[in-house]
Request: fold
Amino acid sequence: MGTDADDKPREACGVVAMRCINKDAATYIYYALRAIQHRGQEAAGIAVNSKGLIVKKGLGLVADVISSEDIEKLSGKVGIGHTYYSIKVSKPENIQPQFLKTGVGDIAIAHNGIIVNSGLLITKLKNEGKNFIIESEEEAIIMMLADAIRSTNDIPKSIKAVCKELIGSYAFTLMINDRVFAIRDPYGIRPLCLGKLPDGKGYVAASESVALDVLGAKFVRDVLPGEAVELTDDGFKSTNIAPSINRAHCFFEWVYFARADSVIDGLSVYDVRKRIGWRLAKEAPVVADVVVPIPDSGRAHAYGFSMGSNIKMLEGLMKNRYIHRTFIMPSQAARDISVREKINPVRAVVEGKRVVIVDDSIVRGTTMKRIVSMLRTNGGASEVHVRIGSPPLIAPCYLGIDMTNRDQFIAGGNKEIDEIRKEIGADTLAYISIDGLVEAITMDKDNLCLGCVSDEYPVSIPGERRRFQQTLANFE
Amino acid sequence: MGTDADDKPREACGVVAMRCINKDAATYIYYALRAIQHRGQEAAGIAVNSKGLIVKKGLGLVADVISSEDIEKLSGKVGIGHTYYSIKVSKPENIQPQFLKTGVGDIAIAHNGIIVNSGLLITKLKNEGKNFIIESEEEAIIMMLADAIRSTNDIPKSIKAVCKELIGSYAFTLMINDRVFAIRDPYGIRPLCLGKLPDGKGYVAASESVALDVLGAKFVRDVLPGEAVELTDDGFKSTNIAPSINRAHCFFEWVYFARADSVIDGLSVYDVRKRIGWRLAKEAPVVADVVVPIPDSGRAHAYGFSMGSNIKMLEGLMKNRYIHRTFIMPSQAARDISVREKINPVRAVVEGKRVVIVDDSIVRGTTMKRIVSMLRTNGGASEVHVRIGSPPLIAPCYLGIDMTNRDQFIAGGNKEIDEIRKEIGADTLAYISIDGLVEAITMDKDNLCLGCVSDEYPVSIPGERRRFQQTLANFE
Amino acid sequence: MGTDADDKPREACGVVAMRCINKDAATYIYYALRAIQHRGQEAAGIAVNSKGLIVKKGLGLVADVISSEDIEKLSGKVGIGHTYYSIKVSKPENIQPQFLKTGVGDIAIAHNGIIVNSGLLITKLKNEGKNFIIESEEEAIIMMLADAIRSTNDIPKSIKAVCKELIGSYAFTLMINDRVFAIRDPYGIRPLCLGKLPDGKGYVAASESVALDVLGAKFVRDVLPGEAVELTDDGFKSTNIAPSINRAHCFFEWVYFARADSVIDGLSVYDVRKRIGWRLAKEAPVVADVVVPIPDSGRAHAYGFSMGSNIKMLEGLMKNRYIHRTFIMPSQAARDISVREKINPVRAVVEGKRVVIVDDSIVRGTTMKRIVSMLRTNGGASEVHVRIGSPPLIAPCYLGIDMTNRDQFIAGGNKEIDEIRKEIGADTLAYISIDGLVEAITMDKDNLCLGCVSDEYPVSIPGERRRFQQTLANFE
Amino acid sequence: MGTDADDKPREACGVVAMRCINKDAATYIYYALRAIQHRGQEAAGIAVNSKGLIVKKGLGLVADVISSEDIEKLSGKVGIGHTYYSIKVSKPENIQPQFLKTGVGDIAIAHNGIIVNSGLLITKLKNEGKNFIIESEEEAIIMMLADAIRSTNDIPKSIKAVCKELIGSYAFTLMINDRVFAIRDPYGIRPLCLGKLPDGKGYVAASESVALDVLGAKFVRDVLPGEAVELTDDGFKSTNIAPSINRAHCFFEWVYFARADSVIDGLSVYDVRKRIGWRLAKEAPVVADVVVPIPDSGRAHAYGFSMGSNIKMLEGLMKNRYIHRTFIMPSQAARDISVREKINPVRAVVEGKRVVIVDDSIVRGTTMKRIVSMLRTNGGASEVHVRIGSPPLIAPCYLGIDMTNRDQFIAGGNKEIDEIRKEIGADTLAYISIDGLVEAITMDKDNLCLGCVSDEYPVSIPGERRRFQQTLANFE
Reply:
């Protein structure tokens, strides 16, 4: 965990939108995307409008995809950008921003989230004579928008009409000719916030506030659930696109996905993690000598645990920062080693000690098992206690996190905590409770999506239970 | 600091040697090099002997240079490896291991350190009819070795004879046909340690103990100053190559260079840093609300400072882990931004707080100045106090660290601390004292190289003062 | 000429279609495309159908774009392929085959030719609610096809209906789900022929017969002007898509574009060129010592001239076969040289001789001027006579050849031949007459497109004269 | 043959030397190397001297290895260059120019040829304390030169002394600090010629005269066998390095290796080939309808054959110019095809005809067999007669051509011509006789190396017969 991306829930995307007074939109988008690069390292792209649409996108990190020459070509006052995580990305066509040249102009979109009913929408559109390159959610949204704008000749009204058809999570930025929008689903499942560049240089929307920070932009506010915000020369122009009775913010954003220095829907990610650690110390106390964070994912939780437990925290596990790329070695010698090279115990910290390790979550448990074993064998820890900053993950996510299979969870199938403890080899194991998590987030439980830990979902998903069936009947 | 490699003293190299019972030497070297990749990211290489010398080396990280196919080709029981830092590396010829096919066999070397008198040695060799590709220290050492072995037909005796000619710092691994050695200069300036693979699979030498850890190897001992150790099928065979009256371990290894989970010359790097922080809290106390480490370089020192001061430590600065590669943007907009994208304050931690930031060292001071300003402006800190885990850097290093110019130091030229404080904009600034540093390291002052903070050097360097002129007169 | 691609009319594309009994379609297409690589070196692509559409395309030669792994993935019984020439190709989206997933299935197209009215068609489609990625002719054709098939549920009927809307030149291959077609415009402007693989392994369509030869396929026949041919398991199924009153084969295919070993519309390219040379010798005789072909474009014409004139032919100009790639050197020294490195006179052949050089055509004349000068200065030729295997190029091509600007022609603007002769520095200059050319081709003049040499075009082009205005009134 | 590089004897190298009045040496060398790129496509390099040695070399064509930026860096008035063919080139170290920094200065060499006694020389040097990187002939020569210059302080004298030690073929260019030389072995086995740049801009030496042509340089003369020529500011300064009693020019240079537009040792390559063809028509006449050259290797011979036989020549075989790169396809379909894609018969030329195909040589015979079969099957030729412009290859070359194995020759082991004819499937087969070849070259037989067709060699090669044992006894 923490050190093994393969053993972590992975987030789908980061999005940005920009409206500037001069033609620097792509420069700002470039740096904003790099600030949220943790939301997707597989592909990236920038689209700007400057007497027509210009797009550069490709596989790789933002810095691999966008060159200095590209930035010069991408001259324009408005633009959107995207970072992508997907194992499906194998072809250039799939990378975002996606765009189409329509009868009402050029439309480009950068989307974070999953439209649960996209299959039906695509089929409907194809039956109506629409043609797709990759049959993506994004193509469908653009096509529906183009049709709606043709009918109504009113972009905000059209966005509202289209969003009414969408079931699922979405936080997307949209460029229609030289107009640019930031839109969030009625539950606010994925984050999206607004900022103002210094010296009146323009306005920005992005998935996380860190993207504003890097630009020197002032955080203005979050996009509201069910709101479409146009970035104008003077600021923001809001349209309510749906009644938002209750929210369903993905709790995992605070627990793991977002950068610790982001503020999401009014809550500091770092603070939430620290409070989770503090509560965890109260819910599941332990007699121990040292608190050791799993770098880097468990660090903030561990600070909190250290404060809550009055056990000193030290860095007892060191991460090798150069293991970006590896390959499968043919020999057994290599297989034994590759486990150890990502993380290494600091013997001076853990030897002979009762150690509490703290991380944000456990998915498969394989990495956690290795770390526990390594702390004992290589580090000489006398006891290893594991504390986890989220409740047991037991159900798939259909709304934007790459955990789509029930079989992958070590905690799946109503397994007893003690059974999991044995599997990972810990002396004790505790997860924070759902209620403890909710209190640490300091948000009403009804305003959080807890699908993956409760098996109840905020939107209707075929074959799954829905939490608030009465609400939004008219909308969805 | 800490986040800006351009503003840090940089170490030259990491070295590895391996002798295995089976032909997996290259696999072990590969992983060992990755574990010490922080000692040089510019180039890397592996040389093995298997009925002749096979070498693969190139520009880039170990994982960029050595492919799975290379490892298969590099089949052999003995080998050496190298990671390189140098701004001079522009040609394939310069990359190590360097090797020559000589009249006494194939000799390859992987070297960490600087031979102060290499220019004289090379001139002498050229006058004797020797021919160079790049006129490197390493070519010179190999040529001298070949001549000595031809005369004496005794490798250890030859190593001793050659080392007698070398003035400077060196920790190198050496492969002569199928024999492999680890050698350390009489002062032990650069680190080098020995380990034993599990299950009797072989023996290893490496710059840092973390390279042993990743292989699952047991740490056996450090190579002694002035010792040449042959790795044999049964263990280690030692030759004393020089009288070692006093040592001169580079203190910067503990303060910054080495990985925190390494143990160098018997001292845990993490522990030393923590003790430095603790002493710093006693030497230069401050009334503050929160201790914030500069990630990642100041983290262990900050833990110590937090303990020594009883001020809680929190992660008030977040580092963007994806900023490996950047390019010069043409616009002013870009220049303003690039400062901020590497590091970002966590407002929830520092807003309205009296903040102590802790780092290991200051070279130019430019990054520190930016961080102090950022904590006030973007983070809202009410006070910013700076504490540094090394004494002021005032003099060049001639023995392996890339600080060769007196002009680069913010603390150079007898500048008052208060002047530096004003330059970086801090409310207070304190460095640890030399004596405090020495006590934190827990080693006799006479056994440390303190050249860059004291302007006195352990070996004779033209134009510089030498500390112990009486010693080793016969040797050097 | 002949050696300077920049000074040659360039052809747009090569197309292939394949239906096999086993899943080797991509393998056959790969080799067929390489055989017609001269029809486009900027980009290439292959699309196959195997339970869904699979496409691989990219910038570069066929061998650069399609790897061995790609071929394995592109497993399928039917497929189409394309080689592309275009200075517009800068983005992956533009490369062919282009494809769309429509309500009637997956449609892919590989197109050679230019649809003169594509702008109008695209506007119409956008007004009808269709959305484009790149607003290409190919997207338009696919969309029109999808709509037609939805209405009629009859693919051949739909192809006929769509082609009725197209004005211009086209020879395209089309894959609709697992059905595959080869279609040619009513004038047969661009070539397209049909073949049968050996051992009943399948059927093929391609731009030139050399693509059949490489597969060991038997040439069956040309696709007729105004014919759509489906490749079936049993052979070919023909649909007449337009009344073809007269043909308008591009004469340049025989003169320059096609490979000399191709047979186009029943006529051997090599034979036509030889007959052109023979006629040229009769039309414009010269007293000379040696006939020298411009390699490789003028070789066949020169053979013919040699036979017609009874002057022996020798290779007096040598081409450097390794000048694929070059760069702009900064110095004057380099500029002087780069002219000479492409072609070099053989002094032994031309020194002191009266030389006739023969090429297929002259566009700008800059290269021809250099060659004439080089033959005199470097080769020592006493006289240089130039004979050209096509009439003077005076008008743009709108139907598939990259000569769209009247200003580029050395022969433009009613210039006297003698003026051109002076410009290129020849002792005498003669072009073949239009009638001579027609006789050499051995086809009725009314069945050739002679637009670029006569300024009259077979289809209506805004601002240009049309040759046969009465015909096809109902069709176009 | 002719179209299958795998079935051709391959030449090792091309060399260039340059002395200019301005700093453009690298520019001139770049273009000169491209002109002789046919002499080696595996690697290339340029070395110049400009206050020290600067070298750029790498794997690939000249244009792949040397960039525009490289040329700017390689600023200097003197330099040498090299193109390399070798299956051994797998490491950067092997590529030429090779260089060493010696006690007498920087020495760089670019070598064409093979030093038969290099193994002995290297062993001797190693025993004397010299150290090698790759144990190459070139390193040995440089080291011997450095030692000689140290002793004599006279470069020409030193070159003479070193060459006295060398047995084998060599034509090399040499740069010693800012002095540059062109040297040829006493037999003149490999070619080397001298030229003068226009406008007094400097002097040049190169393997073939085409390298002079491309620079606009005037051919001055060939370097004489046994001559070392220094390029000076005023022209050439000659030193006789060995008595040259008889020459042993490699006949294959005229027959195949050199570009047809080169003049080697006073003889036009094109003329020699044409005379070979003419003689072949007389020696082995045939009743046939058409002479078809194997493109491009047999074209000049075929012209000659056509003249000698009065049978018209036509291009009955077309080569695909885009088959530079290919990969092994997994399927049988692919294997069948790849034979055909390199070369294709022109049916219009050969159908129903009695065809004579002419090529320069046959090594293995595999490609020739395919072409004969293809002419019958695909082309419809009624008879296929094969005429070869060199005598049967029966013995290895030790002096610079990549034919080192007796087993590879279809004509090896005293095989009857009729047996070879049957193997390749021709109706008749004839090679030119050795005497016919010699007469066509118009040089005394004693002045040619005919080793590969006579099994007698000009220098003593262990295990082989030597032709002129009495000569040069003192020299070798």
